[in-house]
Amino acid sequence: MPETDLEVAERAPGAGGSSPALRIEDLSVSYATIRGRVRALDHVSLAIPRGQVLGLVGESGSGKSTVVLALLGLLDEAAEVTATALEFEGHDLLGDPVTPRGRRIGTVFQDPSSILNPALPVGLQVAEPLLVHRRMGRAEAFERAKELLAQMGIPRPGAVMRAYPHQLSGGMKQRALIAQALATEPDLLLLDEPTTALDVTVEAQILDLLDGLRAERGLTMLLVSHNLGIVDRICDRVCVLYAGRTLESGPTSALLQAPRHPYTRGLLGALPRPDRLEAAPLVPIPGNLPDLTNPDPGCNFRPRCPFAEQGCAEPQFLSEILPGHWVRCHRVGIVETLPWPLPEPVARAGGGTPERHRERLVEAAEMQRAFRSGGTFARLLGTESVTRAVDGVSLAIGRGESVGLVGESGCGKSTLGRLLLRLLPAESGSLRFAGEAVPEHPAAEFRRRAQIVFQNPDTALNPRQTVAAILSRPLHRFALAEGPEVVREVERLLDLVRLPHAFRSRYPHQLSGGEKQRVGIARALATRPDFVIADEAVSALDVSVQAAVLNLLADLRARLGVAYLFISHDIGVIAHIAERVVVMYRGRLMEEGRTAQVLHPPYHPYTEALLSAVPVVGARERSASRIRLAGDASSAVSAAGCPFAARCPRRIGPLCDTVPPPWQVAAEGHRIACHIPLPTLAAMPPALGG
To answer: What phi-psi label fits residue 215: left (phi over 0), alpha (psi between -120 and 50 degrees) or beta?
Structure first.
């Protein structure tokens, strides 16, 4: 009889034969639906030794979050949960999940906007576990909450304690959630996409913190993530889930460097790599997850597997191919030597008409926008706080050009995007589109030709409308389709973003995070725009779906001449989609150039720090030499000099504080705003290696 997944995990390095901290054996979860029972988990078993981190990876709908919710006892009442064992250090979580929850088991969920209470100050929510589980006094709990926020790298933690969630950026809200989860010093931490909303610098800071807690207190962690770079950075072992089943399990380095199951190979083939600009195009896994109301008795990846044969219809069992490395595939010795088939070629970033020969579509000159806080009395007393979100930015985007905009949260990226669409009024500066000035209140034709995909689909999609209604609204609004043609157009849009036509009747709450984001992308494409701003548009997507969407956007740019401003903190994504990159910090541009130029020296010290923080699969050793910035983009700075001077690890003296940095031309189309001489910048070691 084949061994169970639990036996696989218990034999993992570090398990040592002792009882694991977390033990899951034969966990199955199903839901009753109109179409029948959906089997979300199918006899999943795993174990995590104390002080180790297990990464749980797989596409949306694979059952990763269901594992977390089952451990916490937070599944819907309609869910049927069965397991031979569901234990945390001897405590039966199947019978009593409440007692350790919040005290000994901390949890960080993916979407802070739906977790934090909008009616309560952030400080109270971070202190609440201390008040409830540790029985601390109010003053002591609030002081500890303030310390936790500071540990998360949040500047002015006292002010954040008094703020409400809507007053914080997505990254700051996520850091507040992590602080809340760590407040009671739990023994087990469940992390469900904990760094999706974070910048690479803050993400690296949080990963360092978690690594430190594991070393100091033996903290055990279960990390759910679609970011394989993060998994490689922090996890001891990886478990690959697909449609509720474990397909591969093994030590992190072995599994990610030499994946054996076709599904794992597909996930890695779809991963954008900023350190491999000349790599082959991203290769998405074809098809979609199987129908979980009718589980396949054989390999459930078979319909999407390019190596499937007749024997794959038979039940598959985990087999140990190397010590501690297990795969559920009877053809593993054969398929690991076969090349993955490549899709039809798509336009790659960097192709097309050179920038100097391309007609300009968007032209922004000296754009300014500030935000004021403190209210009327603060203004009268002269204590009003003014934040210059966009400070004299000039930017041009050509027809069919893809420009990446990178920088930390709070640097003004999203504000600049909204200024370019006239969704926010600029205090000064000019905007032209297709050679014509764009007024403060533009005409409907500009709205049709310039679209945006927002970062958070939960707030961007109407929860009371079906997918069909959401996608048909722009068609009616701009008279692009009528009658039966609307249905055909909606289906075409769903095909573009790889969603089944049956999703037309679903509401947003019935979709996963990645599925909701795909609906948001389809809505932006509905008007057949000339210019699209993608504000973290693929941050919530699985690597396979992300690859398909990036290839789609590149293909649309090549075929239709669509221009993009791609705002993202994922530099790997930017490296694949953008032919030109703009680096922004505290409302100003620090560097601008073609992608290959910006990713290699010479570059601005801020660009160097961003690249240094990028988690890259197979480069775990880079963490030792990574540049660690103090504070964040809202750190105090003298307005007279370089905005990055206060945090710059290469600061050369008072000159940086008092004199605005000049633009230095490193090459054609590549310029850097810095006082450091170009030869010195060129001598920097490559932050991405190589």
So the answer is: alpha
Q: What is the pLDDT of residue 16?
A: 37
Q: What is the pLDDT of residue 3?
A: 46
Question: Is 21 exposed, middle or buried (CB count within 10 Å of its CB: 0-12, 13-18, 19+)?
Answer: buried
Q: What is the DSSP string of 418-477?
A: HHHTTSS--SEEEEEETTEEPPSS--HHHHHHEEEE-S-HHHHS-TTS-HHHHHHHHHHH
Same fold, 5-104+188-201+214-335 and 355-566: yes
Residues of the chain with pLDDT under 50: 1-6, 8-17, 347-351, 357
Q: What is the structure's pLDDT at 244?
A: 94
Q: What is the pLDDT of residue 105?
A: 96
Q: State which fold the 355-566 domain adopts.
A: Rossmann fold (3.40.50)
For helices 484-496 and 467-477, the axis angle rounded to 10 degrees is: 120
> To which H or E segment does residue 605 belong?
helix 605-612
Determine the Cα–Cα distance for residues 108 and 189; give it in Å rounded to an integer. 8
The answer to whether residues 618 and 232 touch, using CB atoms and an 8 Å cutoff, is yes
- The pLDDT, as a whole number, for residue 428 is 94
Task: List the CATH code of the domain at 5-104+188-201+214-335.
Answer: 3.40.50.300
* pTM for the structure as a whole: 0.85
506 near 519, Cβ under 8 Å?
Answer: no
Q: H helices then E strands: how many in the chain?
A: 25, 25
∠105-108-114 over CA atoms, to 5°?
Answer: 130
State residue 2's pLDDT score.
43
What pLDDT score does 1 carry? 37
